[in-house]
Amino acid sequence: MPWSPSRLVLTSTLLAAVTGCASQSEMTAIRLDRDNPKFKSAGCQDSLSSAETHKDIKKARTIASPVLLFFSGGLLLPVVVANAGLDTVDHVDAAKIAESCGGTPQTKGEMATDVAVGAAVGFATSALTPGNLPGAGLASK
Question: Which pTM was predicted?
Answer without folding.
Answer: 0.73
